[in-house]
Amino acid sequence: MKKLTMYGLAVTALLCGVLSCKTKTQQESVASQDSPEFKGVIKLDVRDSKADWAPFTPKRAPAGSPNILFILYDDTGLASWSPYGGRINMPTLDKLAANGLTYTQWHTTALCSPTRSCLLTGRNHHLNGMAAITETANGFPGASGRVPEACATMADILRDNGWATFWIGKDHNVPEQDVSPGGGREQWPLQMGFDRFYGFLGGETNQWYPDLVEDNRFTEQPYSPDEGYHLSKDLADQAIAMLRDKNSTNPSKPWFMWWCPGANHAPHHAPKEYIDKYKGKFDDGYDAYRTWVVKRMIDKGILPKNTALTALNFLPKEVANPADYVRPWNELNEDEKKLFSRMAEVFAGFSEYTDAQAGRIIDYLQETGQLENTIVIYAADNGASGEGSPNGSVNENKFFNGYPDELKENLKYMSVLGGPDTYNHYPTGWAAAFSAPFKMFKRYSEYAGGTNDPLVISWPKGIKARGEIRNQYHHAVDIVPTILDVCGLKMPDVYRGVKQYPLSGVSMKYTFDAAPDAPTEKHVQYYCMLGTRGIWKDGWKAVSIHAPLTGKGNFDKDGWELYNVAEDRSESKDLAKENPGKLKELIQVWFDEAKKNNVLPLDDRSAAELLTTERPTEEPERDRYLYYPHTSPVPEGVAVNVRGRNYKILANVEITDPNASGVIFAHGSRFGGHSLFIKDRKLYYVYNFLGIEEQSLVSNTTLSPGKYTLGMEFTRESAGKYGESIGKATLYIDDKKVAEGPLKTQPAKFTLSGDGLCVGFDSGDAVSKQYKTPGTFKGGDIQLVGVTVEGKPYQNLEAEARRVLLGH
User: Do residues 375 and 508 lie in contact, with contact meaning Cβ atoms separated by under 8 Å?
Assistant: First the structure.
């Protein structure tokens, strides 16, 4: 017993030693969780430990940090708006200009997606992978259509440093295949540094029936045009609501809001009372407007006194793109003049109405005491749009389908132009007028007509100047450095483990206190878009003589022009012959910048060639598609393609109510689309051909309760004059033919964006006049809808390409 006791004591002593060592090890292990950032003390017991919240507390912006409201319009030349001498009244912008600075030489890339990427990241558009719009992406570093991780956004940096971030309105920096409910979200706004998003992801949308996204999901508009809906109004409502929500819980937190309305991009939609404000204001025509407005711009100090008005249609025939020709006003007939003038009135009303909605946001900031310390930036992303063709259009989708507008038909829409019945765009003459005194317009990056855009900055607390002009030369890439500079922030060299491209721009903060004509602190900026190119350096500019989308190539044979824009603002006097040394110097600078910014290869290919560029997709090509009810609309970019081919639509439906009715399948809108629906107990199929004609098939029998397979079949037989498919359609209830007749289908897409494929309802604008949106199916259940496409489709590539390249 004694031995056992002694042994037991020895074991106990040993165990105590082991346990003691283990406890010590555990304590050391716990304590080893300390990190360099953590300054507290960690013990086994929390009562013996000391907390340190510093590593776990999000950064707060310094007290007194400014808010930023960036209002960004689309497709607006320098000669459009009242602060610059234009005929379009912009009361909100006038007030901001009177309370701040108006910039006369602020430039963009000449196209939407690329400019917006510059404003998002502060890098040149090729570094952002945005050589052109996202729909023209190609497998090169500068043209991928995806912003790389080496280009952190301004929103990322502001949010990380204590700002709330909001993006409202247009995006157009999301790859086309990702604009879908099941697509990747990596490039959507919430993944690009923004806390909230409300708007549309594509290049344009119907202002009365928009294609909307809220945060990371598709959504429907809250009410209809009959109830007063317009997208610009909705976007202002959303902006104010988001700011109110933030201020209700975090009033001291500064914010950044990017407010990007659909204006002034087509379709030009506005309430009639705003359009009518401009009745007769453009009857003198676009040739006369150019002369009138340049004098006004000179008188207001926007342009130097010696500025010359440049000529129209000046490019040599072997260079020019016929789609960008401007018809001389004095060669138009009286009906054309009336129609074209009304189109300008609609555009002006659209612009002013949207300015009024921006004014509601400004008023809210004033009422809540926030305006004093809010930097308001009001700008446009490229020159006026020449996508309306020389003749304009009341349904832009006709142009994209290669189907001509007819004057007689268009005149029928004069009284409703700008309303829900039209999808209009003015002719190229107004694009040239609203971009005066410069040459060309949107897409032409070598000339100021495509790149010299409005910019007004107001910051009552931070800018002493009131109502002054600034003539310093700057570019879209300079906005991010300016905002970061004002906020006391820097773009990091490494962000989230990725080495960053340096910012391409310089801060414009120095201009806040500079004299109007003080030297610019920017020294070089390259330009390149769709095969056009130019280079500005210290007041001199060299430009290649080339037109976009012509497919002519031979860039090494391009002629070059030279301008001293410090003295010749409108680029009217070519000095290439007088100063060949300067021209040679600048051309080499262009190539140096091109190498630094991933610009090459140049691409001026025709729209059809760009369209057929092979791009990777997440889903393999197939000929059978299944769609289900209770899902978001499927955008056309990823929906089944029935163009130029045979197709069948089959739906498994159970009818439980004798009076069942509503949409089974719909895709498109009143401007082009097709729909399968039940009305008055009969099955209908309507193919709306470009808004010109509703082609209808109606069953010769009625439907009673029961289970059915309902559907239709189109058999293509030939191609029409403009590439439309001509054939025969048959309507079925189960395996029984219940109607048949001739049918023609569009050569290109139904819509540029929005109005996606739906099952059980019709989103946005109804395909057919025979029902009202949303036409929800009632009185039964839809199991699924299958769409089958057969064979290789006939494609009118030129028509399809217009949709991709000219619609954004």
Answer: no
Q: Which secondary-structure segment (H or E) carries 803?
A: helix 797-806
SS3 assignment, position 478:
helix
- Apex 352 CA angle, 166 and 287, nearest 5: 125
For residue 729, the one-letter residue type is A
Mean per-residue pLDDT for 584-604? 98
CA neighbours closer than 13 Å in the CB half-sphere of residue 152: 21
Confidence of residue 806 (pLDDT cuts 50, 70, 90): very low
* pLDDT, position 409: 83
Instruction: Please give the pLDDT value at position 750.
Output: 86
To which residue do tokens 């018809």 refer?
Answer: 327
Contact status, residue 343 vs residue 424, Cβ threshold 8 Å: yes
Partnered with residue 218 across adjacent β-strands are 213
List the single range of 72-81, 101-110, 125-134, 397-406 with lowest mean pLDDT.
397-406
Q: Please check whether residue 121 is in contact with residue 153, taking contact to mean a CB–CB distance below 8 angstroms.
A: yes
289: helix, strand or coil: helix
Site of tokens 């072997």: 318
Confidence grade of residue 722 (pLDDT, cut at 50, 70, 90): confident
Handedness of CA 441, 444, 445, 448 (dihedral sign): negative
Could you tell me which residues come within 8 angstroms of residue 351 by beta carbon, excluding any fewer than 6 positions away? 73, 76, 80, 81, 88, 90, 263, 264
Residues recorded for the chain? 808
- 12 band by pLDDT with thresholds 50, 70 and 90: very low
The DSSP bridge partners found for residue 687 are 674, 695
Number of other CB atoms surrounding residue 466 within 10 Å: 12
pLDDT > 50? residue 517: yes
The yes-or-no verdict on residue 372 having pLDDT over 90 is yes
Report how far residue 313's alpha carbon sits from residue 46's, in angstroms, rounded to the nearest whole number.
Answer: 80
Dist CA 175 CA 181 (whole Å):
13
Q: Quick check: bond before 267 cis, omega within 30?
A: yes
pLDDT at site 403: 81
H/E run at residue 365? helix 334-367
Count of helices and strands (H, E) across the chain: 16, 28
* In the block, residue with structure tokens 């054309």: 336
Amino acid symbol at 252: S
540-544/494-495 β-pairing? unpaired
- Is the CB of residue 98 less than 8 Å from the CB of residue 401? no
The answer to which of 189-203, 399-413, 595-609 has the lowest mean pLDDT is 399-413
State the DSSP string of 117-170.
Answer: HHHHHSS-TTTTT-SS-GGG--SSTTTSSS--TTS--HHHHHHHTT-EEEEEEE
What pLDDT digit, counting tens, does each position of 495-508 carry? 999 999 999 999 99
Cβ partners under 8 Å of residue 318, min gap 6:
none
663 with 775: CB under 8 angstroms? yes
Residue 783, C-beta contacts closer than 8 angstroms, at least 6 positions apart? 651, 652, 653, 654
Q: Report helix, strand or coil for 731.
A: strand
